[in-house]
Amino acid sequence: MIIKVKSFKKPEFKRLLKYMVNDENRLFDKKDKSFLITHNLKGRKIDKLVAQFIKNESFRKRKRKDSVIITHEIISFHKDDSENINIEKLEEIAREYINKRNINGLYVAVPHFDKEHYHIHICASGVDYRLGKSLRMSKGGFQKLKKDIQNFQIEKFPELSKSLVAHDKKTKSYQTEKEYQQKLRTNRVTNKESIIENIGNCLNISTSKDEFFKKLKDSGLDTYTRSGKITGVIFENMKFRFTRLGFSKERLEELNITESRGKELSEVRGRKGRTITRNR
Asked: What is the pTM of this model?
């Protein structure tokens, strides 16, 4: 797995948490299940979480202008492991990461799916809970954390072998982080592109929503719902929203208009046919 950390020296709680919790890339499985870990925090509303981060920062013992207020940490996995990844595994890895990093901090963790790979977003406080001690990690400490959490992954989820990376120069059997990132950048032919083309073809030859959804299924794309409405398609256990793929709600609603006009035209033709018959 790849672990990245970005430090913020000014309060960025609200914007980051809104993105993590509400962005359309947040991961939900086929049963519309996700997870939201709030470690040493109460409630799940954004404003309430933000207030607690700010309150906890007030306990900082050594205050400096360049103090790290929060860190945005991302645990990402190789896309070739996608078929072996699920919500439960991601949540277990996220909780283990928090335990190994420092259980005294404040954390929010949420799973996302974007750019064809799974990842976990984590917002971590700059100081521990109500004691004000800095949670800053040294370079060596962070390196140890990466090795420890990867060893946990190897032991608990050996099937996620494509996500293993070399965290030191002595390990030759795994690809390096640089090699993995390069592969992501160069591999631009993605499932998303073929899905967009498939949806576009089905949309162009459909005259109603029901027909559109049927053609999607016939082409191998099942649909999923959120709040009782069909929102997108599922491909290889991954969800893709119509809006995220460039198909707006307005464009889909045009199918209803086309269907309605077709029914009206049929009714008019039917009335004309009956009139001609009576005249005869």
From this structure: 0.64
